[in-house]
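A brief tutorial aside. Many learners find it easier to grasp structure tokens once they have seen a single protein encoded end to end. The record that follows does exactly this for Rlx protein. Read the sequence first, then the structure, and try to relate runs of similar tokens to stretches of the chain.
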Amino acid sequence: MAILKHIASKNADYGEAQRYLIFQYDESTNKPILDENGELIPRKEYIMNGINCNPFTFDMECRELNALYHKNESYDEIKSHHYIISFDPKDAIENGLTGERAQQICMGYTKKSFPGHQALICTHTDGHNESGNIHVHIVINSLRKYDVERQDFMEHPCDSRAGYKHHVSKDYLIHLKQSLMDICRREHLHQVDLLAPAEKKITDREYHAKRRGQKKLDERNRQLRADGLTPRKTEFQTQKEFLRSAIEDAAAVSCSRKDFQNLLLEKYNVKLKVSRGRFSFLHPERSKYITGRMLGTHYEEDYLQELFKENTENKENKKKTVDVEKCNMESKKSATNTSNLLHEEAVSIRFIKSDLRLVVDLQACVKAQQNAAYANKVKLSNLKEMAKTVVYIQEHGYDTRDSLEDSFSEIKGHASASRKDLKSVEDNLRKVNEQIHYTGQYLANKSVYQKFVKAKNKGQFRQEHPAEITLYESARKFLKEQSADGKLPSMKLLKAEREKLLQQKKEAQKTYHYYRDYQKELNTVCFNVDKILGQAHTRQPEKQKSTDIS
């Protein structure tokens, strides 16, 4: 099955998209993989072509077009659109899909769907996260280069004219998905209905959160095993995953919405809200409801109501004694698993850097309102934190609430200034890295270009070495534009400047993290002081991961 993904980018560095397509990147951190010399490592296999541009000078040509029409100059403008078409891994085995064939399919798809735009089309055959599936990246400049004939899918007259931006609307995305489905059916490739809502809707954000959480959990479990302990939890669950599991377990034994609602609250501490015919669920660790539509079609009212009816019919057809025993066993098992899950998650996220913690608001703590014993623990914990706060104030010599606020404002200013300094160093480092990249590109292809200059038949020589000559010319043009005196920079000096900036970045990060943590600590003190004095706090406390009691 082919899946279409769209990413809108505000990054003004078009070369970053080129580097991602050509060189190896870490899929978990999305950062380039460097060799022992600090250089980028080319991908083992890729196929790249350009439409209305040379693929190796895509960045330069996009900047020139933007300058011609005075577009994409502000920070908030979308500079490029990145579409990813991922094919089913079974297509390579069962339907003979190759990288070359996928590239040809997507070249035609790009010409038809994004006419008049500068576009990069690059096929990777290694798959994402070692999945092994063939996928194609389509990167287009958001600004159209040529006037084209108006197509049926274009919603506005300007969508066919040069110098206007690419518009992505809901109807246009539907057209793109339908076109992709038609192509896959024509090419006899595996395909699902991309326009039908998913039974389980897992967004990219949830997918990556799951991967990061699982990686941290695995690292913690390895430490526990090294210490001779047995981990109690081996699989990480996101909040949406927990809700899906709780809904599935509760819906499997519920015969009405009331039973379903009661079981969710009693066994899983999940609240159900019905608003305008839509189900919404509240995770125990959240303050905002998640709608069933965000979880998938199997978690919306229509599907669950049908499931309740089926459960009622099945219950009437079976013996009551068997049903009661089965429901009790499933409820006890689910309740035990959920209880262990909640306890383990609370323990895993309880740790914070500072010894001083926020005073818990009992009115906003759902668990404390439902459990009197837990509420008493919270009260005792609040007393301890209030005492720690008083000691902190005395040790640091804060005589009045205003002096504490003045100190917080001062540290906040330092944190903001250090963040700007860090950002400035990062920007300078990015520019130097870009100069090093193009200088290396210039030097690597210089010998070929010198032979080209001396060649008698320059046209034939250019046809034999198009990539080397194009890379050399684009690098030379970039370096001359960056140089004030027209001289090319020295690689030795550039690397020395990079080392200097890396050291400055390290010091700037250290300073920023110091003031950031100090600001968080003073914010906690201010919040706790307001609670002690019974005053309404003027700002929200820094978000902490848990209010569980040791």
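Self-check: The chain has a mean pLDDT of 83. If you spotted this yourself, you are ready for the next section.
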